[in-house]
Structures are given as structure tokens and as C-alpha cells.
Amino acid sequence: MLETVETLIAKLVDKVEYPRATELFSKLSGGKRLRARLILAIAPEASTAPLLGAIVELIHSASLLHDDVIDEAQLRRGVPSVNATEGSKTAIMLGDILYSKAFSELTSFDPRIARSVAESVVRLSVGEMMDVAMAETFNTDRSLYLNMLYLKTATLIEACTYSAAILAGKDENAHALYGKNLGLAFQIVDDILDITGDEATLGKPSLNDFVDGKVTLPYIDLYEVLGDEEKQRLIQSHAKALDEEEKGWIKSKMDEHCIIEKSYAYARALCDEAIGVIGEDAALRAIIETVIQRSH
Ligand code: FPP
Ligand code: MG
């Protein structure tokens, strides 16, 4: 089934009828295809499920092309990013082609599905803007951070699971909640791995988020429990290159206050709530377990 999605993705890009776009797209690494996998798992019998999977994967690819320009990222999924090899203009325009093509195909779906996916991309874009703005200061507001995560990462996944449930005639609200919580848990595990992972598995130095200005959940939780002087030290370290001593201090404070365990427990609780609403669905249980248990 996932092969059908891959074939459809290639077909949609071909239908743009611009060989340069096809060539550049063919060099991108497809990633885990989590969004398409979820749609297929929820609506395996629906004939249009693979097309919906292909559409959302194109939107996701477009968002990553733009995100790499915004973040000035040199690597994506272990290979040089399009902005690194072809320049930012090409990366932006390739992204534009992919998401416009995706939206054009989306018009053939039930209006509830088309609206849900389209509105999720509005939220995705707002989330990305918030993420960039929030990296300018040391944000200590937990709910603001979680709302940004919801917008930037969870909203498209939520639209996928909601839409797939409509295709399959299943409970769309339960599946939307599953998708939202899975998306949030995915991003929180990402935040954790940025701190606990080593350079070899991450493909970037550890604590990279904080160096980039991103005050992720573990840092917000750490800030809350530190004494006044320690709070100032943490703020001083924000958004700058960190030497080994400073990295060691941050990690030792996280150990002392069991911060990683706390963030992990939060992600776990989100998964448990998601499992609670979808009931006995073994495929969806397995997908959420791979998200929470992944190590890179
Ligand atoms: C990755 O974040 C970025 C996203 C999940 C969303 C990006 C969204 C946009 C650029 C909005 C525009 C949307 C379209 C469809 C063109 P990250 O930088 O935290 O993660 P990373 O480590 O994977 O780069
Ligand atoms: Mg990025």
C-alpha cells in the first residue's frame, strides 16, 4: 500500500510537467512517511486513501523545503538540503510547486477533508512563524510552547487522522485526538533526543535546539525548578555556542531534577490518552509505540 503512495507521489510531481521539478524532487529523501502510513492504517479499504496519503506527503515535503530555508539548514534526513545544493530560491519554488499541486488534487475530496487539510496548513504556517519568533527570547511559558508545537507539528497529523476516519466511516473526533497527541508526543521525543542523543546519532551536536534559541519543553521545566542564580545562568547560555563545561552543567541540572523523565512522562501520557480513545486498533497502537520508543 505504501508503494502505491510512492507511485502516486511520483505521478503527481510528473503531472506538473516540469522536468527540473521532477529531477529535484527525485533526489529528496522520502522519510518515514508517517502521515501516509497513518492514513493507510485508518482507512485501508478506502480507494482514495493512497491519494490522500500522497497529497499530505507532498505538503509535508513542501513545508520541510521551506523550513530548511528558514532555518538555514544544510542537511535534511542526512543528505544536503535543496537550499544548500541549489540555493534558497529553488528550494522555495520547488516547495511552492509541491504544495500547490497537492492543493489542486485535494479539491477532489469530500469538502470536510479538503477543508481540514487546508486549514491545518494555515495553522502549520502560523506555528512556524511562532517558532521563529519564540527563538528570539527565553520563553518560560509552557502552554505557549505546547500551543506552538501543536500548530507546527501536530495539526497536519491531526488533519490526516481525522480525514482518514471520514474515509473509513470511523469516529473522526477520536482519530483527530489520536493524531494530535501523536504529533505532540513525536515532537516532545524530538526535544528529548536533542538533549540525550550524541552527535553520531543526531547528525548534529547535542543541545543544538537551545544553541539555536529554541527553548524546548525540558528547558522550560528545568527553568521552573532552578534557583534564582541558576535561572540567570541558564538564560545567559540561551541562543549561543556552548562549551563542554556549560553543556555539562545544563545536563547535570537536568539529571538532578529528573527533567528528561518528566518530559518523557508527559509524552507517554499523551500516547496513553491517544490509545485510550482509539481502543483496540493494533496498527495505531503499534505506530504510536514506535514514535515514543524511537532513539533517533
Ligand atoms: C520543521 O520544524 C518544520 C515544520 C514541521 C513545519 C514547517 C512549516 C512551514 C515552513 C510552513 C509552510 C508550509 C508549506 C506547506 C509551504 P523544525 O525546524 O523544528 O524541525 P527539523 O529539525 O525537522 O527542521
Ligand atoms: Mg528546521
Strand residues, percent: under 5%
- Silhouette: globular
Report how far apart the termini are: 25 Å
Can you tell me the CATH architecture of the largest domain?
Orthogonal Bundle
Give the helix/strand layout.
Blueprint: H1 2-14, H2 19-26, H3 34-42, H4 49-71, E1 75-76, E2 79-80, H5 82-86, H6 88-106, H7 111-134, H8 142-168, H9 172-196, H10 199-202, H11 208-211, H12 217-225, H13 228-237, H14 244-256, H15 259-278, H16 282-293
Antiparallel strand pairs: 1-2
Helix pairs in contact: 1-4, 3-4, 3-8, 4-6, 4-7, 4-8, 7-8, 8-9, 9-15, 9-16, 12-15, 15-16
Bound molecules: farnesyl diphosphate and magnesium ion (MG).
Farnesyl diphosphate binds at residues 59, 62-63, 66-67, 71, 73, 95, 99, 121, 124-125, 128, 152-153.
Describe the structure.
The structure is a single chain. The chain is an all-alpha fold and 296 residues long. The protein folds into two domains: 1-108, Orthogonal Bundle (Farnesyl Diphosphate Synthase); 110-296, Farnesyl Diphosphate Synthase, CATH 1.10.600.10. The protein is 76% helix and 1% strand. It has 16 helices and two strands. Helix 3 packs across helix 8 (142-168), helix 4 packs antiparallel against helix 6 and helix 7 (111-134) runs antiparallel to helix 8. It is globular and about 60 Å long. The two termini are 25 Å apart. Bound molecules: farnesyl diphosphate and magnesium ion (MG). Farnesyl diphosphate binds at residues 59, 62-63, 66-67, 71, 73, 95, 99, 121, 124-125, 128, 152-153.
